[in-house]
Amino acid sequence: MSSDDQGILWEVFIQAKAGRPFKHVGSLHAYDKEMAIKSARDLYTRRNEGNGIWIVKSEDIVSSEAIDGEAFFDPSNDKVYRHPTFYKIPDGVKHI
Amino acid sequence: MENERKLEEFQQKIDANIKIEPKDWMPEKYRQTLIRQISQHAHSEIIGMQPEGNWLTRAPSLRAKKILMAKIQDEAGHGLYLYCAAETLGVKREQFLQWLHEGKAKYSSVFNYPTLTWADMGAVGWLVDGAAIVNQVSLQGTSYGPYSRAMVKICMEESFHQRQGFEIMVQLAKGTEEQKQMAQDALNRWWWPSIMMFGPHDSESAHSNQSLKWKIKRESNDELRQRYINKTIEQGHHLGLTFPDPNLKFNEETKNYDYSPIDWDEFWNVVKGNGPGNKLRINHHIKAHEDGKWVREAAKAYSKKINLSKKIA
Known about the structure:
The complex is a heterodimer.
Chain A: E1 8-15, E2 22-30, H1 33-44, E3 52-57, H2 74-77
Antiparallel strand pairs in A: 1-2, 1-3
Chain B: H1 2-15, H2 28-47, H3 49-53, H4 62-87, H5 93-101, H6 119-139, H7 145-173, H8 177-196, H9 208-213, H10 221-239, E1 249-251, E2 256-258, H11 264-274, H12 278-291, H13 293-312
Antiparallel strand pairs in B: 1-2
């Protein structure tokens, strides 16, 4: 990296309302945590998009895409009995 | 052989409207096209701040000034969303800036025209942002995930830009005779550049077919241009202003407005760097970047110091 760079790449997650999950909205460059979260506020919440922000260095994210591709999810494919529709319930049985 | 099979699977994903994500396999040409297009789009947002910044200190009221400032801040944000999307393709931010400064990367030619009067703030918002919105709404459906998500966010924010521009046009068009003249003059100067924003005709567009096949673009230049013209003319009628094209006429058969041939010599002349503001825009960007160098260096030195003191403690 040259000496004049744009800092570290961070990923930004926003919580739209209390109680809701944090969702990835994009990324930004900053040199440290404090600058990153202030930039995230200015960049991603100019219109009350959220009341919670998480930021994390991009390089610290572990992604399944980088591991094994589609095969990574194979273990769940042959377990149809995990789904409620797998089970036959006699006619007339309610609220189950 | 391997590549052919991958290419076929890739096209099947595209045809099934499955978005392509950064770590998915993609043809090299798909990657290169996106790097060019997204970075060009990002540069346009950033350079686009300059013609508007020109009026920031001379806005006619505090209200107008606050609005213009918010709009310019949005443009900076849009540029940053797009740089981030472009970076997921494996090119660093520093590289994009270097290509811009060296003239290897382009930005929308429309920002090479000067903003001569306050009415230009109206015309730019109404016409230039209006044209950009037509293009960007279509690009929400682009096949590359990060680009598509950036477009969705940008479109949500962009509609205020066009409305504030139209409001300025209404105020001037309904004002004194001089103000009306000013609005008309701005429309005269910005109409053709805004139409040219959609790029060359489909028959002349070098990258169009492959881009449509890969759904990087969802509609052709001419389709988008026609949509923009149709809706903008109706808006212009509310202002009582005249468009600078005597051949602008509704065609009952096609249900579209016909328009005069576009002056492509003018277009290519500006693309090639001979527009009224090309050198000014790039030189200003380089200067701003160099003036900010000490801030980046200080921020970096500070982050190093903080990390070091943590390690010692």
